[in-house]
């Protein structure tokens, strides 16, 4: 499955949207890739562009080394994003590990004077409540069992000894980034934050989800969906609709002109 058109560095355009009023940037979960978001196109509108992030070490970036830490990953993404198209009101969305990656990119952009219009996070505790972990230190078998428990990877990959051995180093690195993450030094976020999570998600509690209000000086609201950690798969259309509504709302108040001719 194609991850989409390369637009700049790590960013892939899922489909052309020449008349887009705003854009949504999608950050995958640990072990995930840009193509995870490809099916979202079935619900994506004509006037909002969806970009997906391709982390190093997977799909068309398989040969690239994975970052040593969260700072290294965020530094690269924050540089690439402004190059991914003309100035457009932007919503950042991240699920699981992608939530804190998006959060740190949002802070870095804020420090550079180009903050996102909004941040939407999913399936992850507030940054200051991030859970430490040691899955990345376990054996291959223990790591595979964790992937089965969280349903973070397709079972056909887990059952293929060749494929799983190829992907385990990347997955282990993502777990290391996530499990050792602590908020990076820097400016405080000012953008409004919307928090999504599944009501049966073992990876985040209500208190950990509502804790995101301490991560920004902007407004913060919570949306709860039926389901576990990957409730997204069951409620894809509803999540895309929510992201579209956020993007349209900010575009309506933006000073960026919208083209009136092709």
TrEMBL record:
GO terms for biological process: lipid biosynthetic process. SUPFAM superfamilies: alpha/beta-Hydrolases. Residues 23-244 form the Thioesterase domain. InterPro entries: AB_hydrolase_fold, TEII, Thioesterase. Pfam families: Thioesterase. Belongs to the thioesterase family. This is Pyochelin biosynthetic protein PchC. The lineage of its organism: Bacteria, Bacillati, Actinomycetota, Actinomycetes, Micromonosporales.
């Amino acid at each position: 499955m194609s991850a989409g058109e390369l637009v700049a560095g790590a960013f892939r355009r899922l489909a052309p949207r020449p008349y887009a009023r705003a854009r949504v940037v999608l950050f995958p979960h640990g072990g995930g890739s840009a193509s995870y978001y490809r099916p979202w196109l079935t619900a994506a509108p004509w006037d909002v562009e969806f970009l997906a992030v391709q982390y190093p070490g997977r799909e068309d970036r398989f040969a690239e080394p994975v970052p040593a830490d969260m700072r290294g990953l965020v530094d690269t993404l924050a540089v690439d994003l402004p190059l991914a198209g003309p100035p457009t009101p932007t919503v950042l969305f991240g699920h699981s590990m992608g939530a804190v990656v998006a959060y740190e990119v949002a802070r870095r952009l804020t420090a550079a004077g180009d903050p996102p219009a909004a941040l939407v996070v999913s399936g992850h505790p507030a940054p200051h409540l991030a859970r430490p972990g040691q899955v990345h230190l376990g054996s291959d078998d223990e790591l595979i069992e964790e992937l089965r428990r969280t349903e973070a990877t397709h079972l056909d990959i887990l059952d293929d000894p060749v494929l799983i051995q190829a992907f385990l180093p990347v997955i282990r690195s993502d777990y290391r980034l996530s499990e050792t993450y602590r908020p990076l030094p820097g400016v405080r976020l000012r953008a409004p934050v919307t928090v999504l999570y599944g009501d049966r998600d073992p990876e985040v509690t209500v208190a950990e989800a509502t804790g995101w209000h301490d991560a920004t000086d902007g407004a913060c609201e919570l949306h709860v969906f039926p389901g576990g950690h990957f409730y997204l798969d069951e409620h894809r259309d509803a999540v895309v609709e929510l992201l579209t509504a956020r993007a349209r709302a900010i575009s309506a108040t933006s000073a960026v002109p919208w083209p009136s001719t092709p």
